[in-house]
Amino acid sequence: QVQLVESGGGLVQAGGSLTLSCAASVSTINSMAWYRQAPGKQRELVASTTTTGHTNYADPVKGRFTISRDDARSTVYLKMNSLKPEDTAVYYCNVKTHFSASWGQGTQVTVSS
């Protein structure tokens, strides 16, 4: 079972920035991604990255969020700029290996207007 430890959430004013991080307990990782779930809504993909460096972003965050990974540290980051109140959600990292897919515990991001 892959263990994931998330950090970096918090309360920020609209227009501000936050960086989330997620450290995995394994070194052989395929894809890494961030999802979010707002109250009353389904969990949705925010951004993902593969071992080849390919990245994918949801339309609402394109140009504002940047996903990156440090394979030496088995860590994925989500740099969030120009935050909006509609970005408020619990953010979850997701890590896929050859054998499993694992979720982090979630970290709350709250953007005040």
Short recap of the structure:
The protein is an all-beta fold and 113 residues long. It has strands spanning 4-7, 10-13, 18-24, 32-37, 44-49, 55-57, 65-70, 75-80, 89-96, 101-103, 107-112. Strands 2, 4, 5, 6, 9, 10 and 11 form a 7-stranded mixed sheet that branches. A 4-stranded antiparallel sheet has the order 1-3-8-7, with no helix packed on it.
Protein described:
Strand 7 and strand 8 (75-80) form a beta hairpin. With 113 residues, this protein is an all-beta fold. It is built from no helices and eleven strands. Strands 2, 4, 5, 6, 9, 10 and 11 form a seven-stranded mixed β-sheet that branches. The chain is globular.
Mean pLDDT: 96
Order of helices and strands: EEEEEEEEEEE
Distance between the termini: 39 Å
Q: What is the gyration radius calculated from CA atoms?
A: 13 Å
Largest sheet, if any? 7 strands, mixed
Helix- and strand-based class? Answer: mainly beta
Low-confidence runs: none
Strand segment tally = 11
Helical stretch count?
A: 0
Q: What share of the residues does DSSP label as strand, in percent?
A: over 45%
Question: How helical, in percent, are the residues?
Answer: under 10%
In one word, what is the shape?
globular
Topology record:
Elements: E1 4-7, E2 10-13, E3 18-24, E4 32-37, E5 44-49, E6 55-57, E7 65-70, E8 75-80, E9 89-96, E10 101-103, E11 107-112
Parallel strand pairs: 2-11
Antiparallel strand pairs: 1-3, 3-8, 4-5, 4-9, 5-6, 7-8, 9-10, 9-11
